């Protein structure tokens, strides 16, 4: 190998090593971020960008408004969560129904939640009926979501 070839090889090896180290450093520096969606009879609470799932769950329940009546329906990390609502009327009043789902992107999470809600049900007059068809109420994503 010529002196020029050896010099080029000596220059390439440290540069390649620097790229490998830089790539590994950024992957290790990125931490998982957690989110959650909690619901109750007539309310939703959301939380995102927490360091643990437990913290995200607690924040979503707190945002929901009534810890005794709120249930976490969606948990996610490094991605998005979406909640879909459909309003149903009963003889004693009107109330929402909720479905949740997750996805790598906001669009994927919303589509998955709409799929969870399924087709619009057929109303049963005098028993219950759909007042408002299913719609995406909200979609939230962690800061590092795809």
Summarize the structure.
The chain has 146 residues and is α+β, with helices and mostly antiparallel strands.
Residue share in β-strands: 35-45%
**Topology as H/E string?**
HEEHEEEHE
The computed structural class is: alpha+beta
Q: Counting H and I runs of at least 4 residues, what is the number of helices?
A: 3
Number of strands: 6
Main pleated-sheet profile: 3 strands, antiparallel
Unreliable stretches = 3-29
Radius of gyration: 24 Å
Description:
The chain is of the alpha+beta class. It folds into 2 domains: 1-30; 34-141, no CATH class. The protein has 3 helices and 6 strands. It has a 3-stranded antiparallel sheet with strand order 2-1-3. The protein has helices at 3-29, 53-64, 106-117, and strands spanning 34-40, 43-50, 71-77, 80-90, 93-103, 129-141. 35% of the residues lie in helices and 39% in strands. The model is unreliable at 3-29 (pLDDT under 50).
């Amino acid at each position: 190998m010529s002196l020029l070839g050896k010099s080029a090889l000596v220059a390439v090896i440290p540069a390649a090593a620097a790229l490998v180290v830089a790539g590994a450093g950024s992957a290790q520096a990125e931490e998982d971020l957690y989110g959650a969606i909690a619901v109750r009879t007539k309310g939703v609470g959301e939380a995102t960008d927490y360091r643990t799932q437990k913290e995200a769950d607690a924040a979503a329940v707190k945002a929901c408004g009534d810890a005794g009546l709120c249930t976490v329906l969606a948990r996610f990390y490094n991605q998005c969560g979406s909640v879909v609502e459909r309003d149903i009327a009963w003889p004693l009043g009107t109330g929402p129904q909720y479905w949740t789902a997750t996805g790598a992107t906001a669009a994927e999470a919303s589509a998955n939640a709409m799929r969870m809600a399924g087709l619009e049900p057929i109303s049963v007059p005098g028993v219950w009926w759909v007042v408002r068809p299913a719609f995406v109420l909200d979609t939230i994503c962690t800061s590092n979501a795809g």
